[in-house]
Design goal:
The structure holds 2 protein chains of 2 kinds.
Chain A (H helix, E strand, L loop, with lengths): L2 H16 L3 E7 L2 E6 L4 H12 L3 E9 L7 E8 L6 E8 L5 E3 L8 H12 L2 E3 L42
Parallel strand pairs in A: 2-5, 6-7
Antiparallel strand pairs in A: 1-2, 3-4, 4-5
Chain B lengths: L2 H7 L2 H15 L4 E5 L3 H9 L22 E5 L4 H13 L5 E5 H6 L20 E3 L6 H16 L9
Parallel strand pairs in B: 1-2, 2-3, 3-4
Helix pairs in contact in B: 2-6, 3-6
The chains are: A alpha/beta, B alpha/beta.
The complex binds iron/sulfur cluster.
Chain lengths: ~170, ~160
């Protein structure tokens, strides 16, 4: 069985196990993307790790689709170290309450990636052990990778150091 | 007649003293390397044997602000980093000078975004701006020589009245 056939088998197994929770399967430049409904995403990821040896989380990132429904997207880029198959598993969450279950209990390495997604997009990860911003200052109010955020930032939202030295 | 009195009457000694202190300061400009990004690589070349900053007395990169005279800000500076830079700058003893090396340190350069300070002169008094991305080490040497010229035209010796 070559790798494409192995990948097909994995996608088929997900479809069989989770049925309508698999909302879409698409392929682009050789990468297969599987869109999963939000309430099943954690089960699907756990299933992929335990049953298909997707033990390697290469990347986890967010995207702002800028649509009125299901605006934000979280993408898991995972590799099975047994078969070498790479899958992109995605899920959508709404703008009003962007909460996604954490993947840190599946892959501990998801920790910092999820913090980055929180920092940049404002998507919260339920059950994350250390839910802080990772890049921007801790008291920062905004999420700069959202599409409506201005390129140069909000003037005055981050303090510059004072330029008058302390007097004696 | 006291020494102060003789100084007051005669400008010759103060101008000569100016000359000596300026000569000493200009030829022992110890840099504080504030290497933040890619420009720092060119700054290392500037200190290395080929471009040889020691010809100008600037070979001793001091990683302690208390021992340095000129801060070379090499690279783009984020808002988070700006506080650390300013704190280091405030710890440097007077007199001190500052070089903004490269497009990023001077204006923010191509990093026109929310996280990067658009020019370190927003929080530092910069003496010389060096253009280029990155500037060649020669350009940094030129900036150093301009600071030397600036020092040599200073009148820093004053009399306590
Ligand atoms: S001016 Fe160019 S080389 Fe220097 S820090 Fe900016 S991007 Fe890097």
């Amino acid at each position: 069985m070559d790798r494409a056939a192995k990948k097909e088998a994995v996608v088929k197994a997900i479809k069989e196990k989770f049925g309508v929770a698999v909302r879409d399967v698409s392929e682009y430049t050789g990468d297969t993307k599987v869109l999963i409904a939000l309430d099943s995403i954690h089960d699907v990821l756990l299933f992929l790790r335990d049953e298909h040896h997707f033990v390697y989380l290469t990347d986890l990132f967010g995207a702002d689709r800028f649509t009125s429904e299901d605006r934000f997207e979280v993408i898991y880029n995972i590799v099975s170290l047994k078969t070498g198959v790479r899958l992109f598993v995605k899920t959508w969450c709404p703008e009003e309450n962007p909460v996604v279950p954490t993947a840190t209990d599946i892959w501990p390495g998801a920790n910092w990636n999820e913090r980055e997604v929180w920092d940049m997009f404002g998507i919260r990860f339920e059950g994350h052990p250390d839910h802080r911003r990772i890049y921007m200052p801790e008291d920062y109010q905004y999420h700069p990778m959202r599409k409506e955020f201005p390129l140069l930032g909000i003037p005055g939202s981050i303090d510059l150091p004072t330029t008058t030295p302390d007097t004696e | 007649m006291s020494l102060e009195h003789s100084l007051k009457n005669n400008g010759f000694l103060t101008t000569s003293l100016d000359f000596v202190t300026n000569w000493a300061r200009a030829n022992a400009l110890w840099p504080m390397p504030m290497g933040l990004a890619c420009c720092a690589i060119e700054m290392m070349a500037f200190a290395g044997p080929k471009y040889d900053a020691s010809r100008f007395g600037s070979e001793v990169m001091r990683f302690s602000p208390r021992q340095s005279d000129v801060m070379i800000v090499a690279g783009w500076c984020t808002y988070k980093m700006s506080h650390a830079i300013r704190r280091i700058w405030d710890q440097m003893p007077d007199p001190k000078w500052c070089i903004a090396m490269g497009a990023c340190a001077s204006t923010g350069g191509m990093h026109r975004c929310y996280g990067v300070v658009q020019g370190v002169d927003n929080f530092l008094p910069v003496d010389v701006y060096v253009s280029g991305c990155p500037p060649r080490p020669d350009a940094l040497l030129n900036a150093l020589m301009q600071i030397q010229d600036k020092i040599k035209s200073e009148h820093s010796t004053t009399l306590d009245a």
